[in-house]
Description:
The complex is a heterodimer of chains A (354) and B (353). By secondary structure, chain A is of the alpha/beta class.
Amino acid sequence: MQVTKWMAAGVAALMSVSALAADPLKIGFVYVGPVSDGGWTYEHNVGRLAVEEAYGDKVETTFVESVSEGPDSERVITQLAQSHDMVFTTSFGFMNPTVKVAKRFPNVKFEHATGFKRADNVATYGSRFYEGRAVIGTVAGEMTKTNIIGYIASFPIPEVVRGINAAYLAAKQVNPDVKMKIVWVNTWFDPGKEGDAAKALIDQGADVLMQHTDSGAPMQIAEQQGIYAFGQASDMKTFGPNAQLTGIIDDWAPYYVQQVGKALDGTWSNTDTWGGFNTGMVALAPFGDAVPAELQARALEIRDNIANGNLHPFTGPINKQDGSPWLADGEVADDGTLLGMNFYVEGIDGSLPQ
Amino acid sequence: MIVLEPWETRRAWLDWASPLIAIALTLVGGGLMFWVLGQSPLEALRIFFIQPLTSVYGVSELLLKATPLILIGIGLSLGFRAGVWNIGAEGQLVMGGVTAGAVALALYEVESIWVIPAMMLAGIAGGMLWGAIPALLKTRFNTNEILSSLMLTYVAGLFLSLMVHGPLKDPDGYNFPESRLFHDAALMPTLFEQGRAHIGFVMALIIAPVAAFLLSRHVLGFQLRVQGVAPNAARFAGFSSKRLVWLSFLLGGALAGLAGMMEVSGSVGQLVPIISPGYGFTAIIVAFLGRLNPLGVVPAGLLMALSYMGGEAAQIELGLPNAVTGVFQGMLLFFLLSTAVISDYRIRWRARV
């Protein structure tokens, strides 16, 4: 009797000691694409590596790549939740599975990118990419000679629609004749489809390409055809050394380091973060040689004005596509409307897939 | 020179042995691959093939993943036996998912045990309808069914996308392309506390012997087999090849549509733009791994499901890239096709003449 008691006490003591010797915080990441995509997933992985860098052996990270947004994601998230303390799910389509799994693992902290559903142990985060769109829209409007900007879009969700509108409004401001041609590819990552879309847009006269998809294929096509394009999510200069004018970089590292820090010191909560240029979560890639110095300076000025709050990319007067007024002169869009944006602004041709 | 000669008398045991040999060769090849990647081969194989089976949750998820593979594999093996190449089961699955999902949403918050059967019928009908198109094109215009069924897969994917962006979109979902979450009566009853395995797996276990019986004992099965092995003999015997094309596509479509219903109702619980990670295509490998025998398809489906889960485990535990799953499945198919040659032909050396 006594002996078993001692043994039990010993085991308990051993266990608490090993817990004190700080089991590292185990963090899992679920990626929608391969880490080698050179875009969206690549940058999330850079963020993961920054967490390892920042906290050393206090953390241990794992990732699962190319997880389909369908039924498999729930299992992958569950498996990570079983053996990890914190799980980042880095694509919109993981939203419902994340919330479902979070309910079963109340002690695991979940972070879901770009979604809108939170729970006690589910935080959400996203970036104001539209701020970057306003800058590249300006550059595109100035650089295009055919006055046609090609836009490769993924899914007609608010985030993507917002980017199209922001880019168009900025381009229109510097070039009233500009037109935007949009191709919907219904995928986040499919180099073949994205490349085909790029070719189709070039055939229609586009000489500057933008994309809201994750692969470097459109940039490669732009390089081959001698036209310009913008990097998406990451610096894509390797795909198009001459073609890349600049790019919108998603820098998740500051956010990931901050949130893991909060988890380590116990101050984590289910926050909703929507950061832009001001937080460093959105950044610009270095300008290509083709961009004149004067334009570079103007683009940086726009970036700085957005960062310090002097400029909002959605400032009235702006009408919706059908001509009905949206924002009055000087009025600034509120976040609620932006988060649910499901309409084109006036001047964009074509209809939004509904 | 090496000569391939058909066996004069078929070696029945080779029919069963060849997939097992292929699996063994895949294990050896996989072990080699892990070794080259700097992992202990035995440990890696353990994580890949055994670890997923060590918890109730893992087994449950395995059954969940195997269910659509087995159902579709059964349907395909019937058609493939008759030489009807339905490559579009993926599209039939998607259409079944859409129709079943539409029924679930139309009956939103209707609490009745009949919701699930209604969804099943809708899923079967959707899959059959989509399978009927290549069948019609084949029988009326002699269109190549490989191409037409394959291309219709992409049409089905776009149709699903249209639906979740439009009529079936969640009214409270901020325009995101998803339907509402189904209510409880529209979710498949599960088998265990943990995981999502549902009664669909039991149904697959019932359907497999029925299909095997159809194929080996029923006159329709006989016609299917003759049509595949000797189309001229089938014609001479007065079997309607058109009827067999229709039968193959309707059965294949029905089972794929049922699998689609189970995916939306059992695995996902709503309609989303992607409801299948390619089950319709993987089931082609499953059908051949099961030697086009509905009973063989059951273990084949389980093995293939295991290879997916093993790939996930290998990423989590060993930090290996997701590509190992694809390499494993590719190796399996490769060895399978090569050992099939050995079971159908005998290899002999012969001096040049």
